[in-house]
Amino acid sequence: xxxxxxxxxxxxxxxxxxxxxxxxxxxxxxxxxxxxxxxxxxxxxxxxxxxxxxxxxxxxxxxxxxxxxxxxxxxxxxxxxxxxxxxxxxxxxxxxxxxxxxxxxxxxxxxxxxxxxxxxxxxxxxxxxxxxx
Length: 133
Fold this sequence. Notes:
Largest sheet: 4 strands, antiparallel
Mean pLDDT: 91
Strand content: 15-25%
Distance between the termini: 53 Å
CATH architecture of the largest domain: 2-Layer Sandwich
Strand order of the largest sheet: 1-2-3-4
CATH topology of the largest domain: Beta-lactamase Inhibitory Protein, Chain:B, domain 1
């Protein structure tokens, strides 16, 4: 079970109740202002990440090996997009689970990531065979 989907709204409610008990309506205004600021910060971060990713080719990364080394289980798709500064090439059907994305670098190394409900479940690095001399 994902506790962050429960804890964030619960924290907002507790914060609002505490603000009400401390400052009445001024506290409610303070709590609403804080929640709006928190939402705006997350929205601004998302827009900044997607703006940077829009300027690069889809599915391209500077180094697939470095990306593979930096990946961790349960990071979000937005976090991976921020690391790669590129949208991944979608391999799975649109709007189906799991979502499979790939990123390729100049040496044709490929990182394939599988996301379940927006969280990284597994990933694999495939490097091309070296040319025979």
